[in-house]
Automatic annotation (TrEMBL):
This is O-antigen ligase family protein. It holds the Pfam family Wzy_C. Signal peptide: none annotated. Keywords: Ligase, Membrane, Transmembrane, Transmembrane helix. Coiled coil: none annotated. Residues 286-429 form the O-antigen ligase-related domain. The chain crosses the membrane at residues 12-34, 40-60, 72-90, 102-122, 134-152, 158-181, 190-208, 254-272, 277-295, 301-319, 331-352, 420-440, 452-471, 477-493. InterPro entries: O-antigen_ligase-rel_domated, WaaL-like. It is a multi-pass membrane protein. The lineage of its organism: Bacteria, Pseudomonadati, Pseudomonadota, Betaproteobacteria, Burkholderiales.
């Protein structure tokens, strides 16, 4: 029934034999646990799957997952993070709750590790990465390690360690998963199409929410713990100055605005750079939908982030290389763009001042609270600049009591700096800036079929970073890590042949 090929060395044969013995022992233990504690087995299923996958990968060589399956999995990731709120968990009977995010991202981790063990994905992919992409890999890995260090410094190290482990599952490992396995043009095309199509569903949901004044998904939010109290507080914050702020499938109206900025970057990029007239028309229609979603969110940062991404896409499209440029011309072009952006920012100062100060008493109170967070947060960050004060300390050091009496800190940069230290904060900012700079550099140096995607990806990363200045809820960060991976993966080490973007 089983055929064993002779191994080339006794050591390899011994290792394979030990592997089968371990598999048999695992099955025996699993059978005993199933009989004695079935609920425990259900809860240990993810760890059991990890063991089975790793074990099976050890006996498989030179196998690869079909690229179409990988693209479908990327689509599943985008659908999950867009349409499945992080608070939604469906419970059936006495079984553990079903959380689609945990299932999809957990299986993504398994798929990535399987590929790494079954074939030399990392070594081959590393050889073809652009130099900046390798720096990105080091940055993401080092940032994740510094987050673990902050977990050990916290007052509850075990719980903090688990929280950071889930950060790896949701944000950092998906970066490597996408970068090493989905660097083809088809994956980038699929990402853009799904983001644009899903934005229409999100807009429809937001319109229904605004008309009805209710969000049916909130009934899945927990109500018996701190997470439930937080969900209740976030729900209360949706009504400001008598205007109902939609949040659609996200946890907060600001997250809807953040998603709208991502959609605006890619849809506006299609509207300007799509090769076909129908694609450009569809891109413009989706862009209008993203503007409508931002408007329904009722947040000031929505208008700022939309302006940022539109300006970035427009300027990059105007100055992009139409061929291979001389290095002096490319540098002069970059200086022109940076000066133009500085002038644009200077002209926008009065408008930004009005937005920051607040147009109403409620907005003014919100702005005042955020200013107080900076006043408290920066000294707290400088008190422990190297490794931070420990995971979860940021809100205690610089937070204010908001809706529902919940202590909140509405600035993710402060959150990172206080928890993990200034080096972690600088690396986190670099995760946005480095791929944006790589894309900008490539755009102004040489023409290529990846150019339009790089323009949109660069704008999306800048818009996401802008929103992080006033938003501390982390769940949309997966967009930043996936887009960063797609952007740096699109920049070839050498000139490669790709299909045109936006076809």
């Amino acid at each position: 029934m089983f055929k064993f090929k002779p191994t080339r060395s006794p050591q390899a044969y011994l290792l394979r034999t030990l592997g089968f013995v371990a598999a048999g022992a695992m099955l025996l233990i699993l059978g005993a646990l199933t009989a004695l504690a079935p609920e425990l087995v259900v809860r240990l299923t993810p760890l059991i799957l990890v063991g089975v996958v790793m074990l099976s990968a050890g006996f498989v060589t030179k196998t690869t997952v079909d690229q179409r399956l990988l693209r479908l999995w990327l689509a599943a990731i985008v659908v999950t993070i867009t349409l499945w709120p992080s608070y939604m968990a469906i419970r059936v009977g006495g079984l553990p709750s079903i959380d689609l995010r945990k299932i999809v991202f957990g299986l993504s981790v398994l798929m990535f590790f399987y590929q790494c063990m079954a074939r030399p994905v990392l070594s081959r992919g590393w050889q073809t990465l652009a130099p900046g992409a390798k720096w990105m890999c080091w940055a993401v890995a080092l940032y994740g390690l510094l987050r673990f260090v902050s977990a050990f410094e916290s007052q509850a190290p075990v719980l903090s360690f688990l929280a950071v482990a889930w950060e790896w599952v949701y944000y950092y490992i998906p970066f490597f998963f996408v970068l090493f396995l989905m660097r083809d043009e088809g994956s980038r095309q699929l990402f853009v199409r799904f983001v644009c199509l899903l934005s229409l569903a999100v807009l429809a949901f937001a319109v229904y929410e605004r008309i009805s004044g209710t969000n049916p998904l909130l009934r899945f939010a927990p109500v018996s713990n701190d997470a439930g109290e937080l969900a209740t507080a976030l729900t209360m914050s949706r009504l400001r100055d008598g205007v109902f702020r939609a949040q659609a499938t996200f946890e907060h109206p600001l997250m809807l605005a953040e998603f709208a900025a991502v959609v605006a970057a890619f849809s506006f990029g299609l509207a300007l750079n799509g090769r076909l007239a129908l694609v450009r028309l569809a891109g413009f229609a989706v862009f209008l939908a993203s503007c409508a979603a931002a408007l329904l969110s009722g947040s000031r940062i929505a208008f700022v982030s939309l302006a940022v991404v539109v300006a970035a896409v427009t300027l990059a499209t105007v100055v992009r290389a139409r061929g291979t440029r001389k290095i002096t011309t490319a540098i002069a072009t970059r200086l022109f763009v940076m000066l133009s952006m500085a002038a644009f920012a200077a002209m926008a100062v009065p408008l930004l001042q009005n937005l920051l100060l607040g147009r109403t008493a409620t907005e003014a109170s919100s702005s005042s609270a955020r200013v107080q967070m900076l006043k408290d947060g920066i000294p707290a960050m400088l008190d422990s600049p190297f490794f931070g004060k420990g995971f979860g300390r940021a809100a205690l050091e610089a937070g204010v009591y908001g809706s529902g009496g919940i202590l909140t800190l509405d600035n993710y940069l402060l959150n990172v700096g206080i928890d993990a230290g200034v080096p972690a904060l600088l690396i986190f900012i670099a995760i946005f800036i480095l791929p944006a700079w790589m894309a900008f550099k490539r755009i102004t140096e040489e023409e290529g079929p990846e150019q339009p995607f790089l323009i949109a990806g660069m704008a999306a990363l800048i818009g996401l970073l802008a929103v992080r200045l006033i938003l501390s809820i982390p769940y949309n960060l997966v967009f930043a890590f996936v887009i960063a991976a797609l952007v740096v993966g699109a920049i070839p080490r050498k000139q490669l042949s790709h299909a045109p973007y936006g076809r």
